């Protein structure tokens, strides 16, 4: 890792935030795949109101925690970052859950706002 990178970004603090995210959500992609399968459209079509509510309750706190990373992560090539940089694992975890749970959570929000159960893909 080039020395200037560590001067320009507080990599230790960012990586600690990544660790916090992974402590909470690592493996969540597999959890959601186990609950709804691997096809987001089929999951939405076959979902229950309870599952959509649970997805909303799970996804929104995860999204809230995730939102700070794009502003803090230097998003540099790995050769410029510490050897055990957790950024790729965080992105992979978020994307896996987002792919499966976000459509369900959006459908729940749509139901709350519009007062009906018509499933609308986000």
Fraction of residues in helices? Answer: over 70%
Mean pLDDT: 91
Indicate the structural class.
mainly alpha
Total domains: 1
State the major sheet: none
Series of H and E elements = HHHHHHH
Based on DSSP secondary structure assignment, what is the total number of beta strands? 0
Work out the helix count. 7
Distance N terminus to C terminus? 40 Å
Basic shape: elongated
| Strand content bin | under 5%
Given as residue ranges, the uncertain stretches (5+ residues, pLDDT < 50) are none
The Rg value, from CA coordinates, equals 17 Å
Helix and strand topology:
Blueprint: H1 3-8, H2 11-25, H3 28-36, H4 40-45, H5 49-66, H6 69-72, H7 87-114
Helix pairs in contact: 2-7, 3-7, 5-7
Task: Describe it.
The protein is built from 7 helices and no strands. The protein is mostly helical and 122 residues long. The protein has one domain. α5 crosses α7. The radius of gyration is 17 Å and the shape is elongated. The model has no long low-confidence stretch (mean pLDDT 91).
Give me some keywords for this one.
single chain, 122 residues, mainly alpha, 7 helices, elongated
